[in-house]
Design brief:
By secondary structure, the chain is of the alpha/beta class. It contains eleven helices and five strands. It has two domains: 2-138, 3-Layer(aba) Sandwich (Glutaredoxin), CATH 3.40.30; 149-242, Up-down Bundle (Endoplasmic reticulum protein erp29), CATH 1.20.1150.12. One of its GO terms (cellular component) is endoplasmic reticulum lumen.
């Protein structure tokens, strides 16, 4: 334990060109520290990128690092690669299929798995997609906008439950939603409505409703309406962990 704390202290106190990134929760790794640090965590989300990253994708990664700062079992880290001088970390990046031709490359290292899981950015490279990627592949809870942790757990329980048990889960969801503050009250109603519709129409409702909302998002809607639709999409995806036919949609606010 003391060795682990010492290693982290060294990382966060060593001056570097990326001090701002480290301060925001993203830890910098190199060819020496990589394996030492990665194996200390249940999961590690690592971005291989240029030595001095910038742009929307980097900002999305940093945003996730900030939001997950209290998730102890998850490490958010970066490997900065130089293609000049001594070419720092170039060999490490190449080992995991990353180079200047495809930067940034994000890989998820999960304890117990021999190979990292690659992040597919075809649905968008933003903090929500990164968050969802970690959550689906590790079970580590990272909330999406509009989602409520307790209700997400009930959504999971609901989808696993037999038909004759689902009304009981719905009842628990209604009780939990009634205790929510004003900020999350509208989300509570969405969880309740989705469960009621699934009981009425079957599990297929999740997919059809997802497609309906996605179609609305692709149309002309106000920014406020778009925000509400995205929240509904996020909550629907709490039910979709068991519906492999549905793929996450690109989300941009």
């Amino acid at each position: 334990m003391y060795t682990y704390l010492f290693i982290l202290c060294v990382i966060f106190t060593t001056p570097s060109a990326h001090t701002a990134s480290a301060a925001s929760g993203s830890v910098e790794l190199d060819e020496i520290s990589f394996n030492k640090i990665i194996k200390k965590f249940d999961a590690a989300l690592v971005k291989f990128d240029v030595a001095f990253p910038y742009g929307d994708k980097h900002e999305a990664f940093v945003a996730l690092a900030k939001d997950s700062k209290d998730v102890d079992e998850l490490l958010i880290a970066e490997v900065g690669v130089k293609d000049y001088g001594e070419k720092d970390n170039e060999a490490l990046a190449k080992k995991y299929g990353a180079s200047k031709d495809n930067f940034p490359v994000v890989k998820l290292f999960v304890k117990g798995k021999s190979e990292p899981i690659p992040f597919d950015d075809s649905q968008g490279f933003n903090s929500d997609e990164l968050r969802r990627f970690v959550r689906v592949n590790t079970g580590i809870y990272l909330s999406l906008p509009g989602c409520v942790r307790e209700l997400d757990s009930l959504a999971t329980k609901f989808m696993k439950a037999k038909d004759d048990e689902r009304k009981s889960v719905l009842k628990d969801t209604v009780a939990a939603a009634e205790k929510l503050g004003s900020k999350d009250a509208s989300s509570g109603k969405i969880y309740k409505t989705i469960m009621e519709k699934i009981i009425e129409k079957g599990d297929e409702f999740v997919k059809t409703e997802y497609e309906r909302v996605k179609k609305l998002l692709n149309g002309k809607v106000s920014d406020e309406k778009k925000k509400l639709l995205l929240i509904r999409i996020n909550i629907l995806q709490s039910f979709q962990l068991f519906d492999k036919q549905v793929k996450p949609t690109k989300q941009e606010l």
